[in-house]
User: Fold this.
Amino acid sequence: MYKMADAFRRMEEMGEISNKRVLVRVDFNIPLDPATGQIMDDSRIQGSLPTLVRLLEQGGRVIAISHRGRPKEPNRKDSLRPVADYLQDHLAFPVYFQPDILSDQVRQDSQDLKPGELLVLENLRFHPGEKTNSREFAQLLASLADVYVNDAFGTAHREDASIVGVPELLPAYAGLLMARELDQLNQILNHPERPYWAIIGGAKVSDKVKLLGRLLELVNGLVIGGGMANTFLKAQGYDMGQSLVEPDALNTAKELLERSQAQGIPVILPTDLIVAERFAADAPLRQTKVEDIQAQDMALDIGPMTIQTITEVLSSAKTVLWNGPMGVFEFDRFAQGTLAVARELARLSAAVVVGGGDSVAAVNKAGVKDKLTHISTGGGATLRYLEGEDLPGIRALKDAVRK
Ligand code: AMP
Assistant:
């Protein structure tokens, strides 16, 4: 029997990089405008730059691999060529693109790479071997390089060839972004400064039961907003009109509330709401107390009293985790609660960690991104990690230490 390794190696521990061929699994899963092919949000590419630049500066011969979207077969719309073009424009290093991973030319390209040059390969998911973690596909990727770096935290919960297959075959390291993600999340999981509050929103309780259960073991207080708050309010006996309520999750909500009470952990639920009679961007809205919701009302945002309460409870917080919007923030008129929370978090002198795609979008919309401690790049991966799951990609990095 051997002891499972509980630490991964960091890129800084790689030793001499100059001349090494380094295969870097990055997260280039960015949104492209379907009509024009333009990059709509470059934050994930930006997030991968520190690692790529560090390796290139040190004379690495760097090969970047990623997936984008969920293609079933090669197609133009999901190509990573626009990302290679972007990198060419933004980096002071030569950038090459190889559109066919299965061609003999790939091996040649990787051999031809000079120190300080970057080769971007086409979308890994153009090949079924990526998702099925085929040994052959992992071997092909591994054969291109001397060492492997995983910087794709957002994909660490997937058992894909480039995430778990390759690190079985090459010395493996965590990239700068991956290491930062894990350091920040470990900090709020293991050593949070207190009081520690979590703000959880989004559509459904059922998606976040495990997270809420785990948080009750960690935090000093919990704020619940967004669509999922409706189910908690209904469980408390309020009539929620036409609001999104999950009948199947009512018992779970009740149990979570009972647990929090038994543990003495305050749970803040909305006391007032912004309601409309239609789920639409232009629906006329009304502010109402929870007890006054009418049969035709649909709760689409938290109200000002609730925002005030959240502001008060957060004022003494030293650590805050936020996941999920407080309302249908995609519609401007129902985005006020979510934006108010984002702005409030920016004012705090607390460690604030934001995880999950929608809260990150809200933080960007509120323009407070730079004022928060950490914006996690993972959606599903961040949630799974916070829930206490051992992510396959991180497990693979740890296991690789023994090799
Ligand atoms: P999630 O992916 O679970 O974080 O949920 C995000 C989604 O929840 C967003 O698309 C929001 O529009 C939606 N949402 C938030 N509040 C409500 C609400 N009161 N009613 C319906 N959907 C909501």
Q: What stands out?
A: The chain has a mean pLDDT of 95.
